[in-house]
Design brief:
Elements (H helix, E strand, L loop, with lengths): L7 H5 L4 E2 L6 E5 L5 H14 L6 E4 L2 E4 L3 E6 L5 E3 L2 E3 L6 H14 L5 E7 L6 E4 L12 E7 L2 E7 L6 E6 L4 E5 L2 H4 E5 L9 E7 L3
Length: about 210
């Protein structure tokens, strides 16, 4: 057990489950929202968020991302990832309520959030790290899930045997911080199983 890598905040919490991973600090907080709250936020976000399908260039060709996304946050907190620059829309009341709950558990104040809508099991996000320069050297990423349970997969960048699979459920919070983004990739893979929609919110601090 990598006890020296464990987050004191997670260990002290009666809700947090520390994920045993080298070179990382990852904590799962199951069901920080009640079923009624999670159902309500899922419905509200699905209909009030301005969703769009981004386009990325790969090997000289333009492809549509296999999910819908949106970027909300404080004024001027733009964010560039995968060659896409997003300018923030103003916080909605529901996003602020979710952010407040996340802040109370994580003890971090976030100034922006990336939302992804996975419409079916065919929607996905490929292997990547949240290591863009505007997030700083050791970013804190707080990920909230609503809707369909999906497999959140992680793999170490250099230690090929080190892998993790975490099932993220309706109302769960996953916090990644410390050197996690420096040493680990993560993805939401496609699934051939019939699946309902999932909304994921990753709160972060843009410097």
């Amino acid at each position: 057990m990598h006890r020296d890598l464990f987050s004191e905040d997670c260990v002290k919490s009666n809700k947090g489950i520390q994920i045993d991973m080298p070179d990382a600090d990852v904590c799962l907080y199951p069901a920080i929202f009640s079923l009624e709250e999670a159902d309500l936020f899922f419905r509200k976000l699905k209909h009030e968020i301005v969703w769009q399908q981004e386009q990325i260039e790969m090997y000289g060709q333009i492809h549509q991302t296999p999910r819908l996304s949106a970027w909300y946050g404080d004024e001027f907190k733009s964010y560039t990832y995968s060659g896409i620059t997003s300018h923030p829309r103003a916080w909605t009341d529901n996003l602020l309520k979710i952010k407040q709950r996340v802040a109370s558990i994580s003890s971090h104040q976030f100034n922006s959030v990336l939302l992804n809508l996975y419409r079916t099991g065919a929607d996905s996000v490929a292997w990547h790290s949240d290591d863009e320069p505007e997030l700083g050297r050791e970013p804190v990423i707080a990920s909230v899930s609503f809707g369909q349970v999906r497999s959140f997969q992680m793999k170490h960048k250099t230690k090929v045997a080190e892998k993790q699979k975490i099932l993220l459920s309706h109302g769960d919070l996953l916090i990644m911080k410390g050197k996690t983004q420096q040493h680990w990739f993560h993805q939401i893979p496609k699934s051939k199983t019939s699946m309902q929609a999932r909304i994921n919110l990753t709160f972060r601090v843009v410097l």
